[in-house]
Prior knowledge:
The protein is α/β, with parallel strands linked by helices. Helices cover about 40% and strands about 25% of the residues.
Amino acid sequence: MIANVYVGSTCKEKETYKEVLNPYTKKVVSKFALCDAHDAKEVLHVAKNAFADTKKSKLSQRLAWLEDVAKKLEQNSEDMAQTITDEVGKPIRFSRVEVQRCIETIKLSISAMMSLHGETFHSDAMPSGKESLSFFKREPVGVVLAITPFNFPLNLVAHKIAPALVAGNAVILKPTSSAPLTAFKFAQLFIQSKYALSDALSVIYSGEGVNEALVTSKIPRVISFTGSVPVGRDIITKAGIKKVALELGGNAATFIDKDANISEAAKKCALGAFINSGQVCISLQRIYVHEDIYEAFANALKEETLSLKVGSPYEEETFIGPMIDEKALQQAKTWLKSAIDEGARVLCGATCKDLMFEPTIMVDVKEEMNIVCQEVFAPIVSLISVVDFDEAKEKMNNSEFGLQLSVFSNNLLTCKRAIDELEAGGIVINDIPTLRFDIQPYGGIKQSGLGKEGPKYALEEDYTQIKSVVIC
């Protein structure tokens, strides 16, 4: 139940620990070591020294390492799923899905590394050039600092550390304080593997001075962060000259065209708006519906929403469990009350008990309301009637975020225009913007971040660097 600090391959106990409460039962489910700036400097030093060896390691060993971790995780999948549910309250069926996706992310990292290569180029292609043997190769960047959130406490760790390690980097993982044991157990699979590279992975937790020491240090050559916009902005301000990959907030929206399949769209939108209690950066938050089908779609969405089971995350049929903590709940309640005070109306939901927030559909909203223009990160979705795609497009693009957007339409021209004219890192046609495949390039524009996740793309953009070679 205790998540200690890993300094390289050494597990260290600390004197002070902080308890983590299950959001549903309120019982203590884990404890993590409170760290400080001294711990941060120690893991930085260990990682720097480890890279001297990891960069020279054989690819065959690193591939075998990840294959071993994937195999061990598969063997212990139910325990890991239970740990996720214990710490963050995710319904158990979705925790199991996350474990399976994590295994796939590791396997995708193996495949991506196998296909990563350099290229030759013609140095005599221009009159000023001359004939030579010229090529570039890819090398690991050095020390990678990975900072991960609570909502996918296993798979988002895998998206950072699996491609980083298989490329030959040394990694410092700073996981969310809400799920320290999940990260600890996952890190153990790497560190205790018979193929492990010594000291290649360290795990450190939050505490006074930790973030500052890690982010401002010259040792990490890459910082990969998933979390809020304010923290991301702080990191990029303090990081200095190094690669920074940021996966930040979102305000996902979709357009339901008049020719869309209303029943199918409503079913998918209910899932996209309320899965994981809306605590997903691509959670569906705004639904723009063609005025001709607005009432029919609103009724269909309400019916689908009321059919979702809210309750214990340990019950197999539960769709919505608790929110992560009281702070998150209070922010959602505050924004909801503010919207109602300004004239918005509740179509269903808007009640809560403890940390259980009923899935909520809002109508008669205004674009300036926080539940529309900000990232709600709660099970709240807003319905807005529009006259056509042009109006929907203008409102969908009128956001400081640009992570993922979608449309439901059987009109080929509308779909093509959506792909070309909607402003986001990802566009989905005839499904929810909450759709994500771990193999895809994933990341936003505007305030939604920098860089791309997905093992192949993270390897190319973040975890390797090009070295150009000319032999005359």
